[in-house]
TrEMBL record, chain A:
Cellular-component GO terms for this entry: cortical cytoskeleton; F-actin capping protein complex
Family per record: Belongs to the F-actin-capping protein alpha subunit family.
Stated role: F-actin-capping proteins bind in a Ca(2+)-independent manner to the fast growing ends of actin filaments (barbed end) thereby blocking the exchange of subunits at these ends. Unlike other capping proteins (such as gelsolin and severin), these proteins do not sever actin filaments.
InterPro entries: CapZ_alpha, F-actin_cap_asu_CS
The name this protein goes by in its record: F-actin-capping protein subunit alpha
Transmembrane segments: none
UniProt keyword terms in alphabetical order: Actin capping, Actin-binding
Superkingdom field: Eukaryota
Subunit comment: Heterodimer of an alpha and a beta subunit.
From TrEMBL, chain B:
GO cellular component, one term: F-actin capping protein complex
This protein's record includes keyword Cytoplasm: yes
Protein's job: F-actin-capping proteins bind in a Ca(2+)-independent manner to the fast growing ends of actin filaments (barbed end) thereby blocking the exchange of subunits at these ends. Unlike other capping proteins (such as gelsolin and severin), these proteins do not sever actin filaments.
Similarity comment: Belongs to the F-actin-capping protein beta subunit family.
Organism lineage string: Eukaryota, Sar, Alveolata, Ciliophora, Intramacronucleata
Alphabetical keyword list: Actin capping, Actin-binding, Cytoplasm, Cytoskeleton
Protein name: F-actin-capping protein subunit beta
Superkingdom of the source species: Eukaryota
InterPro entries, sorted: CAPZB (IPR001698)
Length: 284, 275
């Protein structure tokens, strides 16, 4: 095997590890992790195809928000094509810079569409943006709505996300929920993550699934959209208050069983006394 | 040194990856730097494992009592599985180790009311010695908790100036895991994490080095107690409170965002008016 071939094989081995590591990195820290991976592997930079692909997967997994001059898009597995993303509403394909989270270019494209489904999609987008403004952190939040099929057999896909990224204070968090509905059924997956890493590494990972019967009336798009987003917000509110209750009960169900703040005597251990007593016992 | 930088980068990455997968994460990173894998593993904090001797007596398995794939018991001073040519503490240090374990067990009883503890000592090249005082405590499967555990890893480095001063440097890491498999309101919920703290103290040895062994145990024990108690007090606010804060500033309860913005608006007005 010559030098060139050896290098290729080594990189292929690294690729699997790189993908795993970047995929599991909390959102907001991927660029830093990639920099460190380059230092470890050596002779590679963040623009190498392996790194860029890992970053792209990471962004799609986390519904990364990509901004343009007067538009924005969420990257997801759903709207991802070979090297661009599809914006169904604006009939565009969009190329993005995954490192800077910026839109590089947009092109017009002809996409299959249905006027009734378009109306529902637009109504949903409006309701989702309202929901985002009411309950999510403004700085990094967004939603998407897409559909497949026609009026007789459709599936809508919704994504909602908000991120907290505060690297100077060593913490990050993300709320990512993806939903799909047909005429009669709404299903959702929620991922909540939090990471705090001053003097350590503490992470919350919480996943939940939802399922609810609905009835979509395409002729009343505005009303249908309101109902669907209302259902979603109701389910997410219930989840969040469940988290609140769980956190409040932790002292009782968890901390108490771990380690006492002080021995039952109410005073710290008397080392002097114990050392002499116990070591004397040992000798026997 | 190149190896130091690579290991540092690995440790940086480990701080960001989910601690629930610490072993998998460590193995993945070690595969990128196979020559320094051993060194990397020694620097990692993870939940402590438990081993048993031939009689079924338990002891803690850690990097500090490991040789190859075997671990030394603090009770029998033997490796399991048994190996030839392994590393043992010197006779004097083994005597100290026995005494320390007896005393540390009392500490564990007083504060943990259960669990398992082990102390391991080893000689160092600079003439000093070091020790790891370890505790593993599990929370029983109850009240919806599937797994819960606390692992304390107290590593103390002991040096003397050759005269009468002894310096003790402690690094304590507490690794906590709390796992809820299925809760009807929140689904699968897991908080896992490590917090680390360091402290250093120096003391003059007792006159004539009388009962020097007991002196070491007392000083080390007091340090362990101080740092563990401090980290215990951080349990609520840091381990758990912080993760809650992060979530609740990402998504607000109904009406809360509006309320906060109103309050901020009022504060701004107040500031403008009264400076």
């Amino acid at each position: 095997m010559n030098q060139g071939e050896e290098e290729v094989t080594e990189l292929q081995q690294y690729e699997k590890v790189v993908k795993y590591i970047v995929k599991n990195t909390p959102f907001g820290q991927a660029n830093l992790v990639i920099k460190d991976l380059c230092k470890i592997i050596g002779n590679i930079n963040p623009q190498h195809p392996i790194m860029l692909q890992a970053l792209r997967d990471h962004n799609e997994e986390h519904l990364a928000l990509i901004k343009g001059q007067n538009t924005q898009i969420l990257t997801s597995v759903l709207n991802s094509q070979e090297d661009f993303y599809v914006d169904q509403k604006n009939n565009e394909t969009i190329q993005v810079d995954h490192e800077k989270l910026e839109i590089i270019s947009r092109s017009q494209v002809e996409l299959p569409s249905d006027p009734e489904l378009n109306t529902l999609r637009d109504a949903l987008e409006q309701q989702l943006n309202l929901y985002l403004s009411q309950q999510f952190n403004d700085k990094v939040c967004g939603a998407y709505v897409m559909y497949q099929g026609d009026v007789s057999d459709f599936t809508f896909y919704l994504g909602i996300t908000a991120k907290t990224i505060n690297l100077p204070n060593f913490f990050c968090g993300s709320w990512i929920s993806t939903w799909e509905f047909t005429k009669t059924q709404l299903k959702g997956d929620l991922r909540v993550q939090a990471h705090y890493y001053e003097d350590g590494n503490v992470q919350l990972k919480n996943v939940n699934t939802f399922s609810e019967g609905i009835n979509v009336d395409l002729s009343a798009a505005s009303e249908s959209a309101k109902q669907i987003v209302h259902t979603i917000s109701k389910l997410e509110n219930k989840h969040q208050s469940g988290m609140d209750n769980l956190y409040n009960s932790m002292p009782d169900i968890f901390f108490k069983a771990m380690r006492r703040p002080l021995p039952i005597t109410g005073t710290k251990m008397n080392w002097n006394e114990n050392v002499h007593k116990l070591v004397a016992n040992l000798k026997q | 040194m190149e190896s130091k930088e690579k290991i540092l980068s690995c440790l940086n990455i480990l701080k960001r990856l989910p601690p629930t997968q610490i072993q998998k994460n460590a193995t993945a990173l070690a595969s990128l730097i196979p020559d320094y894998a051993e060194e990397l593993y020694q620097k990692i904090d993870k939940p402590l494992d438990i081993g048993q001797d031939e009689k079924g007596n338990q002891f803690i398995q850690s990097e500090f009592n490991r040789d190859g794939d075997s671990f030394r018991s603090h009770l029998t001073n033997q490796y399991y599985p048994s190996i030839d040519d392994a590393v043992y503490p010197s006779e004097a240090l083994r005597k100290l180790e026995l005494k320390a374990n007896a005393v540390f067990e009392e500490y564990r009883r007083l504060y943990y009311e259960g669990g398992l503890s082990s102390c391991y000592f080893w000689d160092k090249e600079d003439g000093g010695f070091a020790t790891a005082w370890l505790i593993r405590k599990n929370v029983e499967k109850s009240k919806g908790i599937e797994d819960g555990s606390w692992s304390s890893i107290n590593v103390i480095d002991i040096k003397t100036d050759g005269k009468s001063k002894w310096t003790y440097k402690i690094t304590t890491s507490v690794v906590l895991e709390m796992n809820i498999i299925q809760n009807q309101d929140v689904g699968k919920f897991n908080i896992t994490g490590t917090l680390t703290k360091q402290k250093e103290e120096s003391y003059d040895a007792p006159a004539g080095n009388k009962d020097l062994e007991l002196f070491h145990i007392m000083k080390i024990g007091t340090l362990v107690e101080d740092v563990e108690s401090y980290l215990r007090s951080q349990l609520d606010s840091v381990y758990f409170g912080k993760t809650k804060d992060i979530v609740f500033q990402t998504r607000f309860n109904e009406g809360e965002k509006h309320f906060i913005q109103q309050r901020q608006g009022l504060a701004g007005e107040f500031k403008q008016k009264y400076g």
